[in-house]
Amino acid sequence: MVSVVQNVAIDCADAYELARFWSSVTGRPLHPGARPGDRETQVLAAEGPALYFNQVPEAKTVKNRLHLCLRPETSRDQEVDRLLGLGATFLADHRNPDGSGWAILADPEGNEFCVLRSESDRAPRTPDALAFPGRAQGRVGRTE
Question: Which of 40, 50, 121, 124 has the most CB atoms less than 10 A away?
Answer without folding.
Answer: 121
